[in-house]
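COURSE: Structural Biology Practicum
ASSIGNMENT: Worksheet 4, Part C
STUDENT ID: 0417
INSTRUCTIONS: Below are two proteins. For each, the amino acid sequence is given first, followed by its structure token string. Answer the questions at the end about the second protein only.

PROTEIN I
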Amino acid sequence: MRAERGRPARARRRHAIAATLLAAALAACSDGGGAAPLAPTGPTRVAITFAARVNGEPFACGRTYPGLGLGSIDWEPSDLRVYVSNLRLVRDDGSEQPVELDQDGATQLEGIALLDFEDATARCSLVGTPETNVHVRGQVSAGTYEGVRFTLGVPFERNHGDASVAPPPLDASAMFWTWNTGYRFLVLDGVIPSGAGTSVHVGSTRCEGDGRGNVTGCDYPNRAEIALDGFDASRDAIVLDAGVLMSRSDLATNSPGTSGGCQGSPTDPDCEGPFALLGLPFGGIAAPAQEVFRVGPGLAEPPPAAPVPTATPAATPTPGPGGAWTWNLPAGFPRPIVPADNPMSEVKVQLGRHLFYDVRLSRNGTQSCASCHRQELAFSDGAVTSRGSTGELTPRNSPSLANAAYNPTLTWMNPLLATLEQQAMVPLFGETPVELGFGGREEELVARIAGDSMYRSMFDLAFPGEVEPVSVGNVVKAIGSFERTLVSGNSPYDRWLAGEEGALSASAKRGKDLFFSELLECRHCHGGLNFASALAHDGSPREKTPFENNGLYDVGGTGAYPAPNVGLYEFTGDLRDMGRMKPPTLRNVALTAPYMHDGSIATLEEVIDHYARGGRRIASGPDAGDGALSPYKSTFITGFPLSAQAKADLVEFLRSLTDAGFTTDPRFADPFVAPPGGSTP
């Protein structure tokens, strides 16, 4: 590739990073008689610094950048993350020396590193993480170097595994597309003043595989090879300029019939500019020289004096009091996150199971948690919206609790409820609306439970050594422990993945291919192990849940949603968050009708019609409007053509996500009802 602009390669001074990176290790040596210094011969520690810019200005979440793209539009970032691999330094003779990366158990694995420039503030809070990373650290053979080379992307052999059980940094759900496609190598997202989102996502596309991770190749690998001359690791940084990447894009207009922004396809007109600027081929045109990455002086920081420790093995389950807990998880499922102050134990889970089904947890003795979360319906309730113990309707549909332990957040709209224990407090003590009705009457609830000798004994065993084991805090801890065990992962689709070819019908297999295709874009909201928008598990950083607007409403043509179901807007006050809801799991989706946050769509067929149209049109009434035209709709909700047979196939695939064993498993059943031929636990 060409030399960096304005800095001719042969006229540029050569950089001896081996003499500058570690003064202690590489100080000049002398024989005391005036002889020339000895050149170091061992490996040299090195830190390669990356810096993000927007038209030369530092990248920062919460900052608005003027004049971007072809229309010179104001733009605010919401994400910027990049995978790089195969990093090499270039000697003065042109030979390349690989950098051996530290295996730090967080941002680097084998030869792969994840660079994360967002910090989960402002717009970046929707899908980001507070942790950032702008360095690639490791060691390289001592020598004189004058350039750097690396690959933008994940190597093929690592690109098509199961991200839900992959070690860091390959467990970042925001960076994963599907089993077939693999990872997003580069994610650059943002928002323009109209509220519309912008996206540049680059990764391998049109990959072939059998759905079991056996991918044989991709028509478009889309791995950009970056070569920069005149690079001194002790002094310079590699600058990624997001403004340059978007400079040939119309940020306000998306090409008709395509996904929002550039989604990695060399046949999508919205990818033509970003691909050319990254040095990737597009539409049969040879790759030009890349322009997005450059050398920036004065930005490096010294490497650590010693390698970062390698990743520690995954921790073994922590037994709680009252009997060690052993997870009995479906094949391939990682352990859920367990709060440090609420370790699992058998007696605590059984206590939580009893409390979950006990109508005495409602003040008037008419309802339990199970009233709105029925096992036969995958722990949903089949109602449009739930009804509390006093008859008051809640504003939203009761979501399934299947695999709730893997959810980074736990309700349709609230980004703050991140644990099952926190969520259990809402139905118990909430007053708007009233559900179980103990708001302001916590002592009454505790006295009721403590008056039962069975419960006193169970609380003593579950929380030994506590002076008052029956408490509100321990009630929700026990319920959370039981709900954490509600793991579903043995559907026909799971059995087919495991090699049971007959588990899926021909129709379901066709539907599977449609579901994971770029045409339908289902994976954006329903990907990964849990067919949901995000996944949190033990050993993985808890990523924030993406909230999306799927075009369900456009009241009065303003983009508004009917109150009180205004989505994330309720918490941010930002109109761009109007109608943004958490995409739920699709596991057992055939059992959890009606659908959407307000239960306003009755069948799976109608759900598919909604997405095929690109939004719902309501012709009359107080909610009239065309959701397909909403200014706040997520950019990938664009609509798609679908034949009657294709729709039937897609429904068949969705039905194949039903885990019949989960809905009848006695471990999750009502302990106050004797099973056939048995006795009450």
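PROTEIN II
(use this one for the questions)
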Amino acid sequence: MAASSKAASVSATEASFASLLTKIQYLDAPSIELVRKAYRWADELHLGQMRHSGDPYITHPLTVTGLCADWKLDAQALCAALLHDALEDCGIAKRDIIERFGSTVADLVDGLTKLEKLPVTTREENQAESFRKMLLAMASDVRVILIKLADRTHNMRTLGDSPPAKWMRIATETQDIYAPIAHRLGLNQTYRELQDLSFKYLKPWRYQTLTQATAKARARARDLIQRGKKDLETAFQQAKIPATISGREKTLFSIYKKMRTKHVNFSDINDLFGFRVIVDNQSACYTALGVLHHLYKPVPGRFKDHIAIPKANGYQSLHTTLVGPSGVTVEFQIRTQSMHWVAESGVAAHWLYKTQGHGLAAGQAGQHIGAHWLESLLDIQNETIDASEFWDHVKVDLFPDAVYVFTPKNKIYALPRGATVVDFAYAVHSTIGDRCMSAKVNGDLAPLRTELKNGDRIEIITAPVSQPNPAWLSFVRTGRARSKIRHFMKTQAQSQSLAMGEKLLLQALRQEGYAAIPGSSPSHKGLWDKALRFTGNKSTDELLVDIGLGKRMATVVANRLAKLLTEQGQTPDPLLLASSVLLRADAAANQLIVDGNESVNMVMATCCHPIAQDAIVGYLGHGEGLIIHRKECTVAARLVRKDADRMMPAVWSDDIDRNFIVSIQIDAADGQGVLAQITAALAAADANIVHIDMVQEPTTGIADLRLRITVHDAPHLKQVLASLARVKAVLKATRV
């Protein structure tokens, strides 16, 4: 009896597997047997588990595997698809999968399980972490995301069986994350289905209304489409061009999106239906275009050549809009069969190429689809720590309204609309981006912030001394460029803070009577271990960076080191102690030398705008680095009373070569040409105006002008004020 029951169970299992078996005939016999083995184990593991619909749970992994088989994925991927819920729901360990199917299948399942464990909601911070985890899985093996997209597609198809409370969250997540990824990887069929299914649950009333309207329009246009298809087939037969012609419909979500963006009604949408023409080779695509333009009249400005210039996700086709039968405008897509595979399956076309036997070149082409974007995402992943920052970098790339530009050697790059010369430089290579100094666009010198247009030819001019400018962040558009610039700034901040911390600690140690910071020799290892336990830092460099950023006080650390050095038998130098007590006579050692070069570690206070040769002090902000104030600044005076330990004496370097911004106030008699006289006086004194505010007092006849100007130093400012005082209309000119 038991044997009979077992035989019946095996028979049921084989019957369920039969639908998948018809799809995987492209595999060899051993591979099919491996997939059969995975199915039997999955069926056994999920025995007794049910879906919300009431169906046995095994129907879900079976359907997901069928979708992967449509992409002709290999046997390992199909096994992983069958077992993708096994780790999460069935209590088995990764080692169990390794023993039965090998480490590759186990890694794929593990990658999918990590995605399933994510506590994803529609909140942006969780989207960010979700996307980061997905990227890591994609980086290890792109098959992970293909299986995940198949899994999400089936879950969306059956979402109606789930509790309604889940609909909004899952549909929003699909629209925000999974559909854009499918589009970016060229999986257009999956992308369109996920968009429509999300639309169905996010806007159910609009979805239902458009479904009914489209069905009516389809019924009205049926005869028109059949007549058009017959005309096309006749035209291509006469031209002796083998072609497969099929109709295509606009998706409901794309109709809804067009109605919203164009502010039109459904009746105004005239490209609901179109035709796709598939020919044998690329040359035939252009010949077919000629046949179509001879048959129907083309609409001006509605032709796009995505064969010569493919889209960023690898999509290739000719697009043309023609005035078809009965005066209806119809869009045509013309492509080869291999282009069609890429258009519908994107990165999955790599496996399609292999199974269809189209040779090495085609296989390589499919393998590199989307590779540039994945490489870009990996760069961003490596250079960002915070998940939200990572999301900020990459989400701008998910819907790229692309522009296509060329290198001097005619290599094509696709960039998001609004991308600049700097974005292009980083797209070519990160080193070129870091070292770019200027550029030529179409042979003419252009600013780095120049927005690129379709067809622009860009030549980047680099210099070894050039480096990324923080101001670039205000205009770059791609996540790759933004992450590279920020990574450079963080690295620079780290090195600058380290140098500043070392300088401040040395200065504090000299006041304790020690001429140098203890080194990293074995004799000092115990000393540093105790010091780091005291501060809570992991390394000496981290401690010095914290001191440079103001997170730790140099005097406190120096005092601790001095005690530890004394315990080791090293006594302080009496001469250094004496010089510290005697009003710090050694100014060079005890005063901070400011060279005027601002950085992420040292900035000029905006409250008082110190300039060279002003009397200055430094304030070590809490994590903000060193802020330079004028000694007479009221903010600095308040900081001295509140936080004197963080103030330190500072002097200007003797060789400063830069301009400083300073604020001045001018009271002038209001009259014609006064502003022109003042600007002329400033120009004559070699001062440049950065900003100007002017308030007129009609009752007194006096104009109050507030200006921010650039000067070299304090003596230069004195000359500027004297030059202004000589203007007849100026009553008073003072520094603010």
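ANSWER KEY EXCERPT:
Q1: Confidence is low (pLDDT under 50) at residues 1-15, 117-123, 351-371, 581-589.
Q2: The two ends are 101 Å apart (CA to CA).
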